[in-house]
Write a structure and sequence with these properties.
Oligomer: heterodimer
Strand content of chain B: over 45%
Mean pLDDT of chain A: 94
Number of helices of chain B: 0
Radius of gyration of chain A: 13 Å
Structural class of chain A: mainly beta
Number of strands of chain B: 12
Distance between the termini of chain A: 36 Å
Largest sheet of chain B: 5 strands, antiparallel
Low-confidence stretches of chain A: none
Order of helices and strands of chain B: EEEEEEEEEEEE
Mean pLDDT of chain B: 89
Low-confidence stretches of chain B: 1-7
Strand order of the largest sheet of chain B: 1-3-8-7-6
Radius of gyration of chain B: 13 Å
Number of strands of chain A: 11
Strand content of chain A: over 45%
Structural class of chain B: mainly beta
Helix content of chain A: under 10%
Largest sheet of chain A: 7 strands, mixed
Shape of chain B: globular
């Protein structure tokens, strides 16, 4: 299994550009989530999904869209990039949602480093 | 609501010594706890977990202790090695989500 994969690893955008961060998992996990990590801020939840076709907002959803058309993929879209979105983005997945059972341990991808100029 | 607190943002430990990283939680109904390790440039990685019906759980060189009376969790690393240098998280479990704090950075001194 490849686990959780993220592309690209690095990206530089100009303010106002749009892009999609890709996330895929091959473990048949129902729950997937996106976090951003900024220096001194820990990991903050952007959006999450408890299954295909179901998504919801986390702590910092503004400026981001998500969709979950398949179990495997959970792309994160930036519609109009802003310098405040410069961060490292992590995608994670688990068998069940937090609180849904013992197997809610999250597996994280390697991250995407995004810089918005 | 849930809160996660780590007593120290940075912990420096001599190589070979034991490390103890602490974590406080607020929700007495929490029934499951996980520790993650994040090495520089990588995503967080699961280390060990513990259910609320246990006080202690051991892994390879790591032990997690749970004190439900004072709502305190600790991660003990035996014979700390340079490879243990990382940020450690003990996220709290919310509804459909985990809430991560800023973590504790463990520095291993040669």
């Amino acid at each position: 299994n490849a686990g959780v994969t993220q592309t690209p690893k690095f990206q530089v955008l100009k303010t106002g550009q749009s892009m999609t961060l890709q996330c895929a998992q091959d473990m048949n996990h129902e729950y997937m989530s996106w976090y951003r990590q900024d220096p001194g801020m820990g990991l903050r939840l952007i959006h999450y999904s408890v299954g295909a076709g179901i998504t919801d907002q986390g702590e910092v959803p503004n400026g981001y869209n998500v969709s979950r058309s398949t179990t495997e993929d959970f792309p994160l879209r930036l519609l109009s990039a802003a310098p405040s979105q410069t961060s490292v983005y992590f995608c994670a997945s688990s068998y069940s949602f937090p609180g849904g059972g013992r197997t809610d341990t999250q597996y994280f991808g390697p991250g995407t480093r995004l810089t918005v100029l | 609501g849930e809160s996660v607190g780590l007593h120290l943002p940075t912990l420096s430990v001599q190589e070979g010594d034991n490390s103890i990283i602490n974590c406080a939680y607020s929700n007495s109904a929490s029934d499951y706890f996980i520790w993650y390790k994040q090495e520089s440039g990588k995503g967080p990685q699961f280390i060990i977990d513990i259910r609320s019906n246990m006080d202690k759980r051991q892994g390879q060189r790591v032990t997690v202790l749970l004190n439900k009376t004072v709502k305190h969790l600790s991660l003990q690393i035996a014979a700390t090695q340079p490879g243990d240098s990382a940020v450690y998280f003990c996220p709290s479990r919310g509804t459909y989500k985990y809430i991560f704090g800023t973590g504790t950075r463990l520095k291993v001194l040669a």
